[in-house]
């Protein structure tokens, strides 16, 4: 049985925690303006020129931190073999690309130029593949995730 759960253990004990930390750091960087300072952009000047960008950034940061909390909740659900753990994992692989695309579309509209690139397309394809992989994986282990 232990071999059947290697992927779940990887998700629950490592991947989701690591992603939650990275997502929290990114959210905090957006809230503090640090993500722009890394790119040598004056955040005050940017927000003065595009005031709605600040609202979008703050909203995206809060959503990122909320998704990080959801990832931790999902990791704990996996560790505790909760029945809905697989559904939560699949939800993450749907929510994250949707939120990212919405954020980039909003910034593209505000800035007047397309900033959606092939990287996001690759990320969406990856997330959709992972959605189906996890859907199959957790559906085939319903006998384990019963709490």
Order of helices and strands: HHHHHH
Number of separate helices:
6
Biggest sheet descriptor: none
Based on secondary structure, the structural category is mainly alpha
Mean pLDDT: 92
User: What is the C-alpha radius of gyration, as a whole number of Å?
Assistant: 18 Å
User: Helical residue percent?
Assistant: over 70%
Question: Which spans have pLDDT < 50 for at least 5 consecutive residues?
Answer: none
Overall, the morphology is: elongated
Q: How many extended strands? A: 0
What proportion of the residues form beta strands (DSSP E)? under 5%
Distance between the termini: 17 Å
Give a verbal description of the structure.
By secondary structure, this protein is an all-alpha fold. Helices cover 80% and strands 0% of the residues. It has helices at residues 6-32, 34-38, 43-49, 51-79, 85-111, 118-139.
């Amino acid at each position: 049985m232990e071999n059947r759960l290697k992927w779940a253990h990887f998700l629950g004990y490592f991947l989701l925690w690591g992603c939650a930390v990275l997502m929290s750091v990114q959210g905090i960087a957006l809230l503090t303006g640090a993500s722009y300072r890394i790119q040598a952009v004056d955040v005050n000047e940017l927000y003065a020129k595009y005031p709605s960008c600040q609202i979008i950034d703050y909203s995206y940061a809060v959503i990122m931190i909320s998704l990080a909390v959801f990832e931790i909740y999902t990791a704990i659900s996996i560790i505790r073999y909760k029945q809905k753990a697989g559904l939560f994992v699949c939800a993450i692989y749907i929510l994250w690309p949707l939120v990212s695309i919405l954020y980039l579309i909003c910034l593209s509209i505000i800035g007047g130029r397309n900033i959606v690139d092939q990287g996001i397309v690759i990320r969406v394809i990856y997330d959709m593949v992972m959605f189906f992989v996890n859907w199959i994986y957790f559906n085939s282990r319903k006998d384990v995730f019963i709490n």
